[in-house]
Amino acid sequence: MAVAAKDLTKDYKFGFNDGDEFVFRSERGLSPEVVADISRRKSEPAWMLEFRLKALEHFRQRPMPSWGADLSGIDFDEIYYYVRPAEEQGRTWDEVPEGIKRTFDRLGIPEAERKFLAGVSAQYESEVVYHSIREDLEKQGVLFCDCDTGLREHPEIFRKYFGTVIPPNDNKFAALNSAVWSGGSFVYVPKGVRVEIPLQAYFRINTESMGQFERTLIIAEEGSFVHYIEGCTAPTYSKDSLHSAVVEIIAMPNSHVRYTTIQNWSNNVYNLVTKRAIAKEHAVVEWIDGNLGSKVTMKYPSIYLMGEGAHGEVLSVAFAGDGQHQDAGAKVIHVAPNTTSTIVSKSVSKGSGRTSYRGHLKVYPKAHGVKSSVRCDALLLDEQARSDTYPYMDVEAQDVQIGHEATVSKVGDEQLFYLQSRGISEQEATAMIVNGFIEPFVKELPMEYALELNRLISLQMEGSVG
Amino acid sequence: MAETAHAYRLTREEATAVALAGGDPVWFAELREAALAAYREAPWPSSGRDEDWRRTPQIDRLDPASFSEPLPLESGEPPSYLLAALLGPIAKGDVAATIVSDETGNLPTPGTSAGTAGAQLALTLAAGLAAESDTWQALAGNVAPPGLRKWVSLNTVATRGGACVHVGRGQQPQGYVRLLHGVSRGSASFPRTLVKLEEGARLTLVEEWISPDGDASLLSPVAEVELARGAHLTHVILQGCGDQTVVQSTIRAKVGQEACYEARWNMLGGAWQKAYVETFMLGEGSSTRMVGLCVGRQRQHHDLQTLQDHVAPGATSDLLHRVAVADRSRSVYAGLIRVEEGAQKTNAYVQNRNLLLSPQAKADSNPTLEILANDVRCTHGSTAGRIDDNQLFYCESRGIERQQARRLIVEGFFADVVDALPEGVIREVSRGRVLAGLETLAHSGALAEPSRSA
Predict the structure, then answer these.
(1) Residues 6+ apart with CB under 8 A from B222
(2) Nearest Cβ partner for A398 among B342, B365, B450
(3) Which residues of B are less than 8 Å from A320 in CB distance?
(4) Are A304 and A383 within one domain?
(5) Is ipTM > 0.90 here?
(6) Which residues pair with A230 in a beta bridge?
(7) B233 touches B203 (CB < 8 A)
(8) Chain B residue numbers touching A378 (CB-CB < 8 A)
(9) Does residue A2 carry a pLDDT above 70?
(10) Which residue range(s) make up the domain with A443?
(11) Which residue in B310, B290, B391 sits closest to B350, CA to CA?
């Protein structure tokens, strides 16, 4: 660990910029014309255009949220809502344009592929440009493609589920996404199929002031299993960028869906994401959510436990450095009886960084036998750092066991002293303690992500002591 | 949420018509003016708009103007419900002084005796403001400023009585000061309590909030407390209002260096209540310890909002609120620990435990943290659950009947809160009231086995 930290430079690792290279870019700003234009260029069916225009209306009517993080820096008129980087979607690695390939090389995607990852669907700007699925997955009937392709090639499944978990009028940013969405992943796992290797997608932003509005839809049929991984990095720019994704998951009875994100947007990105899953009878949904970068993140992965015996888990880590505000949390809504949930949130604030846990736990009157535990731990590294905890608990059933605990503290002097007395420098010791603090999260990640996260934390910790 | 049209439009004439018996000191009249302006400026609270009121929509339908104007006293004696409480079991304790108020203002206290020391300790609001104008001018409207909240403004404009409690430097009087704040059927009362403990002083203050069952009434007390260096106050609040009374209360305490504020509350009565208990750790090494309980029955609704604001470094605060909700009652708890910049070495804790005794009862819990310093230890815990089957099984295996076992478990649930009350008559009276409440719960079947089909 400590050795790895020394190898890293202080520069933002992914803060390079390959220069813009795109085929089509929409006008700045948002209007019905821009929305219609996006829909026409994608040759979408009429119902999708209608859906988009309705969503745009919702977006315009909704006020900006008055709670949570400061969003006053967003100028909706300064954003490009659609950028298409290359004409055709690359089928093999060789067909991917050279500049884009260079960027991916630095992110290590080809290596990931060599490690027998199930499929790589890398989103560069608004459209998926490279995509592959292992043949055996295709044979099993698993669909893993970008959302535009999903709409085009599998309209019957797509239309049945699209927008059903998060309707366009859910909130202002879900409405915005619904109006201008582009790209993202579409995953369909047929009944009884277990996808043993994680499905992966990389998301990137590369055009200045360009919003990225990907849309992900995951459907796990009865008794199936899938682990979807999304990693995000973005180059550093001087102007604020907006990222507003929508992720919908439908977990049918007895299915198991795990969704892992490591988000490391550059420090000028507004990351405003709506993520929601529905879990039917005895289904299991897990959100593993790491938030490291961005200027402002507002993200509350939620699980609606609709079927008896369903289980939800949210495990999240937030790291806020100088000037960053991570307003993250989790929502679990117990609608059906005998449903269970666990929320574990770990946050670290450094410099003038601010982390907020904002949660909502609701138990409906008929949901008897519910068990839920919520645990939030915060670590404060500097005097200017700030941490808030706002967990809402709303219990309308009697036969329940609900527990919530939160702690806020600094790095223990005794722990530091112990490590330093063994000849470890203060900085290394602090990094070790922070890594130990987030260990319950890290151990749930696939190996390469765990390594990457540890390196990112060490990188963030550099210069934090003395 | 529909905008409320009413909201008690006080005219200047109405407001200036309110004065303490014997008249307001000039500065207090000015404070009322400022409060009136603040009251007019602020909109009526709304469950749709205000986070504080989100879970208590009763506020949207409440109109203080619907309560009748207080009638002047006829007999000069407290009304019978107040008299009964006044001469009740708590009078048998070691009472140093007694102050009584209702919607007409302060009332005489027949049948109670107070030594000369006691008479100096606690005065009626009017007598206190007249006797020690400078002391109270520095405190009234300072701890709870007029514009703080609609209800604080209204209390400041409309108060007719209350108490001034002042303990001098190093004084540690025997016995406790007793305050009874009542409201009669159909009326609204706004008692104001001012408490100042000088350096090293020590006191136990027992407030009883009461009203008769039956017609709707409104009781809206405000207490302002200031503790100088090393002072120690135990502040007991026994809310035993009638079943149709709306209670809107604010308790605010500023705690000085190495001073200690201990609050104890029993929220048992009322149709619905919104209570604020807010403490400010202003001096290094100050501490607060707050322990309270709430029992909800039928359609009662109790909403408690607490604040532990750590301004000075090295202070500790600790809060425990235990709630049992039966029938269709509802409890709301929101507790904020705020640690201001520079308040290092803070140690703060909040614990809220909810026991759900009926399938239709509801408990909301929202403990929150806002931490702006880093060298702190701040923790909160919150639980909600029904009676533990294992505990029931244990009792039954020892031959205790199920209903009796359930009662014992609820009693045990509240034991640490009751035991935190001052020893003697207050603790015993309080224990008796909680137990009596449980007895009627058992009687009404609320402690019987809940059905799962609900």
Answers:
(1) B144, B151, B152, B155, B156, B159, B190, B191, B192, B193, B249, B250, B251, B252
(2) B450
(3) none
(4) yes
(5) no
(6) A201, A261
(7) yes
(8) 369, 371
(9) no
(10) 411-466
(11) B290
Structure tokens at B42: 């602020």
Query: Looking at the 3D structure of chain B, how many domains does it have?
Result: 1
The answer to the question of residue B384 being in a domain is no
Burial A345-364 (b: 16+ CB within 10 A, else e): bbbbbbbbbbbbbbbbbbbb
Smallest Cβ distance to B366: which of A392, A397, A408? A392
**A368, A388, A393 ranked by CB distance to B452: nearest:** A368
Nearest CA to B330 out of A399, A396, A404, A363 is that of A396
Note whether residue A123 is domain-resident. Answer: yes
**Inter-chain contact A389–B383, Cβ cutoff 8 Å?**
no
Facing residue for A404 by CB, picked from B359, B372, B381: B381
Q: How far is B287 from chain A (nearest CA, A)?
A: 19
Nearest CA in chain B to A359: B366
How confident is the model at residue B292, as a pLDDT? 97
| Same domain, yes or no: A433 and A371 | no
In this complex, the residue of B360, B369, B383 whose CB is nearest that of residue A402 is B383
Whether B384 sits inside 8 A of A387 (CB atoms) is no
Contacts of A380 in chain B (CB under 8 A): 371, 373-374, 376
Which residues of chain A have a CB within 8 Å of the CB of B372? Answer: 386
Q: Are A124 and A100 in contact (CB under 8 A)?
A: yes
Within a domain: A16: no
Whether the CB-CB separation of A319 and A347 falls below 8 Å is answered with yes
For the stretch B367-376, pLDDT in tens is 999 999 888 9
Query: What is the domain count for chain A?
Result: 2
**How do residues A272-327 score in pLDDT, each as one tens digit?**
999 999 999 999 999 999 888 789 999 999 999 999 999 999 999 999 988 899 99
Whether A396 and B369 lie within 8 Å, measured CB to CB: no
| Nearest 10 degrees: Cα torsion A169, A173, A175, A177 | -150
For residue A407, how many other CB atoms are within 10 A of its CB? 17
Same domain, A308 and A167: yes
- Tell me if A5 is assigned to some domain: no
pLDDT band for A114, please (50, 70, 90 cuts).
very low
Query: Cβ separation of A401 and B370 shorter than 8 Å?
Result: no
Question: Is A412 near chain B, with CB under 8 Å?
Answer: no
- Which chain B residues are closer than 8 Å to A383 by Cβ? 341-342, 344, 373-375
Backbone angles phi, psi at A71, to 5 degrees: -110, 15
Both A314 and A200 in one domain: the answer is yes
Q: Enumerate the residues of chain A whose CB falls inside 8 A of the CB of residue B383.
A: 401-404
Q: Is there a domain that residue A105 lies in?
A: yes
pLDDT of residue A392: 85
Closest to A260 measured CA to CA, from A464, A42, A23, A441: A441
Note whether A323 and A440 are same-domain residues.
no
Q: What type of residue is A388?
A: D
> Which residues of chain A does B374 touch, with a Cβ-Cβ cutoff of 8 Å?
380-383, 385, 410
- Give the separation between CA A279 and CA A342, rounded to whole angstroms: 14
